[in-house]
Amino acid sequence: MLAMLAGLTACGGGDSPESTGPSAQARLQLTVTGLVALDPVSQGRYEAWSLDAAGGATPLGTLAVSGTSGTLDVALPTNEPASIVVTVQTLKDPAGSPSAHRLMKGEWKGGRATLSVENALTLGNLPLKQVPGQFTMFSPSDNFLNGYPSFEECGVWLFNMAPRQTPQNDQWVRLSPLTPGWTYEGWMVRDHGKPDAIWLSYGKFLPDASGAITTRDDTGWGPFSGVEDFQTAGEEEFPGDDWFSNPLGFPFPSVLRLPLDLREKDATGGSRWTHVITVEPIADQGEPIGSERPFAIRPYRDDFGDTAPGTPRTITFRPEGVPHGDAVRR
To answer: Which of 74, 140, 255, 327 has its CA 20 to 30 A from that of 272?
Structure first.
């Protein structure tokens, strides 16, 4: 009998620290790439959340952003989290709960979670559209006065000029539907990638339930189209803007001259203008004209080039412009 008790003690039946002490709390190590630093006052911060099986959220902390990467190393509140979510939290969002601006999400599997925009930024598990369609150069706002063609190089418009060359086979560009916290925004960017790059928004827009972009953006012909009722004038039911003149006196970069020449070249002969489509927090809707700034999600980018008016330009998906992350539970 004594021998049996001794054997049980050796197998862990005694009061050793390993059997009675509290188990070590699991830690989360999260790394996200493809970010841009946010202004904490006007844009907010990146926040991570642990979700349980019922969807309950526990805050994990704010990501530390350096360059294009964000990191977080914290104790997990539970050893059985179901998923992890990264959101953008603004000063207007209530404390203690995730905002509607869900940036990426990942499910825990075997102590790891791969975070992507699917089911956070996009509806359901839809990926961002990889072949959206086309954009083109023309300026409809001055055609009544000056005819066509006239100053066509000052405008950009988002529709399929050559539908038979697209998977859609119609005039409408397709983009993945977004969750309620987000909207698309179109831009023309002078000297993209340089510290003094100039970003000119041509408006915010959303696809319909099928992904088709069948309506104009929130700026219509554009505040610099030379038309005072720019939001409602014209017949174009797709996003785009003309940069022709500024009769309403909106803020505009002093180094640029209107009408713009979007086929402008640099000293080496390269195109100075780039077409970009970003995904922006829906809270940015209604921001003052001239104050628009791009967010971190920049999935579509193309040199504007110098081809003729009406020439179709393909919208190119850039996966490096989409944030993604990895989480490890230790």
So the answer is: 140
Contacts of 306 (CB under 8 A, 6+ apart): 263, 265, 271
Say if residue 19's pLDDT is above 90: no
18 contact partners, CB below 8 Å, separation of at least 6: 12
Residues in the chain: 330
Using omega within 30 degrees of 0 as the cis cutoff, is the peptide bond preceding 294 cis? no
- The β-bridge partners of 274 are 189, 303
Q: What's the pTM?
A: 0.89
In order of start, what are the domains of the chain with their CATH numbers? 25-123+322-329 (2.60.40), 133-314 (no CATH)
Whole-number Å distance between alpha carbons of 206 and 186: 11
Spatial distance between the Cα atoms of 218 and 125, rounded to a whole number of angstroms:
27
Give SS3 for 74. strand
Of 166, 176, 200, whose CA–CA distance to 186 is shortest? Answer: 200
Widest pairwise Cα distance in the chain: 108
For the four alpha carbons of 241, 228, 215 and 217, in that order, the dihedral sign comes to: positive
Task: Measure the CA–CA gap between 86 and 50, rounded to whole angstroms.
Answer: 9
First to last CA, the chain: 42
Tokens of 156: 């950009």
d(CA 330, CA 316): 39
- Average pLDDT over every residue of 157-172: 96
